[in-house]
Design brief:
heterodimer; A: 106 residues; alpha+beta; Folate-binding fold; four-stranded antiparallel sheet; two-stranded antiparallel sheet; 14% helix; 30% strand; B: 212 residues; Gyrase A, domain 2; Alpha-Beta Plaits; 2 domains; five-stranded antiparallel sheet
Chain lengths: 106, 212
């Protein structure tokens, strides 16, 4: 079981959290301009990364707040925990601009 | 106390007809308790109000003046006298008061909180029927809880007077340490039967006569 450090509550068991899928999936600027395939790719297609992977988690039985986590999908090592709406550690500002804040995709 | 009497009379016997979520376990709780070692009982019908407000906002300050403060961090409990305010999230709090603080029994806690919020951003919701309270006490109370809770409950880490939202026996609860050996466990009403029986099962080895 993972021991996840909630930014508000400190380290808690993984069972207190829920998984929210890949982080930094930008909402399309103009959804009406997309064809069905592009819309389906936005909705359902996600990276299947081997290694560091940015994902969203919510502390559902604790403070009920969302946060981002950078986790290694091979070793399960938690490399970073950072707030919603901020870029993953190690990404450039250029990449940040290409990614909509998390709130936009809710 | 004329108003109190009037409010009680206007209740039409609702209070007498009310049944707490673990009322049917009272006998089991009594049989499972051993004084000073591990005791469990239900404290039903506490008045509770869920509050969502930004602590730093004006509305937050107004609510804090009614509730006796708003806690700032995880685990902290604010309050004055009989009213306690538990931290549930950065902008989410649970106000807990005795049963007679409810307006159906002549209290004025919820109207006062609602008035304090005014037209500020946030909400005040009557959650009195949402959770029940199990009081678990005795020298082995911590051992009972540790069977199903992964938090560090040692006194050096879990101080008296703090409350944490966590899981006990896979049930989401609020765990509130009221004294050195006294804990209050607040499960939602529908989990009360399961968690009550689960705690009684956990108490069995401590509350049984020792086998030589």
């Amino acid at each position: 079981m993972l021991l996840i450090s909630c930014p508000n509550c400190g380290p808690r068991d993984e069972t207190e959290f829920h998984y929210g899928g890949q982080a930094h999936v930008a909402y399309p600027e103009d959804p009406y301009a997309l064809n069905d395939r592009e819309w389906a790719e936005y909705l359902f297609y996600r990276d299947n990364t081997k290694g560091a992977y940015a994902e969203r988690w919510v502390h559902s039985t604790g403070c009920r707040q969302w946060f981002n986590m950078l986790r290694d999908t091979v070793s399960y090592e938690i490399q970073a925990i950072y707030p919603m709406g901020t870029p993953a550690p190690g990404t450039s500002a250029q990449e940040t601009n290409a990614q909509a804040p998390e709130g936009a995709s809710k | 106390m004329v108003e109190t009497a009037a409010a009680t009379a206007s209740n039409n016997g609702v209070r007498e007809a009310r049944r707490s979520p673990a009322a049917h376990l009272a006998g089991i709780f009594e049989a499972a308790s051993l004084a000073g070692v591990a005791e469990i009982k239900e404290i039903p019908f506490r008045t509770m109000a869920g509050i969502r407000v930004q602590r730093a906002s004006e509305a937050g300050a107004r609510i804090a003046s009614v509730s006796g403060g708003l806690p700032a961090t995880c685990g902290e409990v604010a309050g004055n006298g009989a009213v306690s305010v538990l931290w549930l999230g950065p902008a989410e709090f649970l106000v807990i008061a005795p049963e007679n603080a409810h307006e159906s029994l002549g209290g004025d806690l919820l109207p006062a909180l609602t008035e304090a919020l005014g037209d500020g951003q946030g909400q005040v919701v009557d959650l009195s029927a949402n959770r029940t309270v199990f009081e678990l006490s005795g020298l082995r109370a911590r051992d009972v809880l540790e069977k199903g809770c992964s938090l560090d409950l040692h006194p050096r880490s879990f101080k008296t007077g703090t409350a944490l939202a966590t899981e006990i026996g896979h049930i989401p609860v609020i765990l509130w340490k009221r004294g050195d050996d006294t804990f209050e466990v607040l499960p939602r009403a529908s989990f009360a039967d399961y968690l009550g029986r689960w705690l009684v099962d956990g108490m069995r080895e401590f509350a049984s006569p020792e086998v030589p």
